[in-house]
């Protein structure tokens, strides 16, 4: 790839195409080589222009963004596609589908399909285009890689763990108390996270002898929908974490966007609770992986399993160091499968990663860590 990043803009709104072009070309390393008015037009323009990165609107006539993206990845496997989605529940669910099928990342439009104030996400859009262009595409980002994973993950849930049984077992767990679970697993992830988690979470059994906390950098309006999508593809019961939730064996909690999730012990009873806080305020990401990991290790110590997956930056690296120093187990995703090898690399370089494995081995390592004495 040349130093100049060649970008194709796909959006059915002429105003949006102009706005995105103006934002991207504020960076001298980015050149907008063309634009397309719908998904079908995008296929033609991609073949003519061979861009490095495509920004793709989701809702378009003739051919929608997700359908176009799948055809584009067949036609041009090396291209990186960034989805532009609306901040709605429907927008969130479609975005997650796109990420599972091979989109590199997404940017949420601040005010719907046609956003006059698109400039507020300008810095994020430019940064993600540059990261996408710098990152090697790997096999895990292709359509073929995801389709069998999703199918194999869903099938055992239907055959071995029907929904009715799953809910009954969860009620029994709650009634029986909470002190029995062996460990707590805290997973931190950012860019590339939804698809990576869909590869890991469905492999965890319903009778997991632990509770799981997931911190995914994501807007506040997306995390509830994301938790629901994970739950539909998992043997675990997965919800968006709420203040006062009691940690329960065999359950997973997604940290809500826009606020930090921490764990506190209820001294009056033998239970651990989720608390939500705006402090500390100076963190780069909210929720912060570091904030959650450090609060958990203060309570659970060596019973903590820390997992750090794909993502840009260093959030979670210090938390992984704290977990390892307390005697817990730490697992980082290997560069061979990480969409962005930023967060895991920082953890490894700081000595916070005891185990480094590709994403498809992370679930197995989590189960081994839970069984450790």
From TrEMBL:
Modification after translation (UniProt): Phosphorylated by CheA. Phosphorylation of the N-terminal regulatory domain activates the methylesterase activity.
Enzyme Commission no: 3.1.1.61, 3.5.1.44
Active site residues of this protein: 190, 217, 315
Subcellular location: Cytoplasm
Region ranges (Disordered): 136-162
Enzyme class at the top of the EC tree: hydrolase
Start and end residues of each Response regulatory domain: 6-124
Entry GO CC: cytoplasm
UniProt keyword Phosphoprotein present: yes
CDD domains with a match to the protein in the record: CheB_Rec (cd16432), REC_CheB-like (cd17541)
Main location: cytoplasm
Modified residues (4-aspartylphosphate): 57
Keyword 4Fe-4S: no
Known catalytic reactions: L-glutaminyl-[protein] + H2O = L-glutamyl-[protein] + NH4(+); [protein]-L-glutamate 5-O-methyl ester + H2O = L-glutamyl-[protein] + methanol + H(+)
GO annotation (BP), single: chemotaxis
Sorted UniProt keywords: Chemotaxis, Cytoplasm, Hydrolase, Phosphoprotein
Record's compositionally biased regions (Low complexity): 150-162
Entries under SUPFAM superfamilies matching the protein: CheY-like, Methylesterase CheB, C-terminal domain
Gene Ontology molecular functions: phosphorelay response regulator activity; protein-glutamate methylesterase activity; protein-glutamine glutaminase activity
Family label: Belongs to the CheB family.
Record's comment describing the protein's domains: Contains a C-terminal catalytic domain, and an N-terminal region which modulates catalytic activity.
Role noted for this protein: May play the central regulatory role in sporulation. It may be an element of the effector pathway responsible for the activation of sporulation genes in response to nutritional stress. Spo0A may act in concert with spo0H (a sigma factor) to control the expression of some genes that are critical to the sporulation process.
Protein name in UniProt: Protein-glutamate methylesterase/protein-glutamine glutaminase
Organism: Candidatus Desulfosporosinus infrequens
């Amino acid at each position: 790839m040349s130093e100049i990043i060649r970008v194709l803009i796909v959006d059915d709104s002429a105003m949006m195409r102009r706005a995105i072009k103006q934002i991207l070309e504020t960076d001298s390393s980015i050149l907008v080589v063309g634009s397309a008015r719908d998904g079908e037009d995008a296929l033609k323009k991609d073949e003519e222009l061979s861009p490095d990165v495509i920004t793709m609107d989701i809702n378009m006539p003739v051919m929608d963004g997700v359908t176009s993206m799948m055809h584009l990845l067949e036609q041009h496997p090396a291209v990186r596609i960034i989805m532009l989605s609306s901040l709605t529940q429907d927008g969130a669910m479609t975005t997650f589908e796109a990420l599972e099928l091979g989109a590199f990342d997404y940017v949420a439009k601040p005010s719907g399909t046609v956003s006059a104030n698109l400039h507020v996400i300008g810095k994020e859009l430019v940064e993600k285009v540059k990261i996408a262009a710098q990152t090697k595409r790997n096999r895990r980002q292709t359509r073929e890689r995801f389709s069998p994973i999703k199918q194999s993950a869903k099938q055992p849930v239907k055959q071995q763990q029907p929904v009715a049984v799953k809910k009954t077992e969860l009620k029994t767990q709650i009634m029986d108390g909470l002190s029995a679970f062996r460990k707590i697993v805290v997973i931190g992830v950012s860019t590339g996270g939804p698809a990576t988690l869909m590869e890991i979470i469905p492999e965890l059994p319903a009778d997991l002898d632990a509770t799981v906390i997931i911190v995914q950098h994501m807007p506040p309006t997306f995390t509830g929908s994301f938790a629901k999508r994970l739950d539909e593809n998992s043997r675990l019961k997965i919800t968006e974490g709420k203040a006062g939730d009691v940690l329960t064996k065999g359950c997973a909690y997604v940290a809500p966007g826009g606020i930090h999730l921490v764990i506190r012990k209820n001294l009056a009873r033998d239970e651990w609770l989720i608390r939500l806080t705006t402090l500390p305020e100076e963190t780069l990401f909210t929720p912060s992986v570091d904030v959650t990991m450090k609060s958990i290790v203060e309570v659970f110590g060596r019973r903590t399993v820390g997992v750090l997956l794909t993502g840009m930056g260093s959030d979670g690296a210090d938390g992984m160091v704290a977990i390892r120093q307390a005697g817990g187990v730490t697992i980082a995703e290997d560069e061979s499968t990480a969409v962005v090898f930023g967060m895991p690399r920082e953890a490894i370089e700081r000595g916070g990663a005891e185990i480094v494995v590709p994403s498809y081995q992370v679930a197995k390592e989590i189960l081994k860590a839970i069984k450790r004495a």
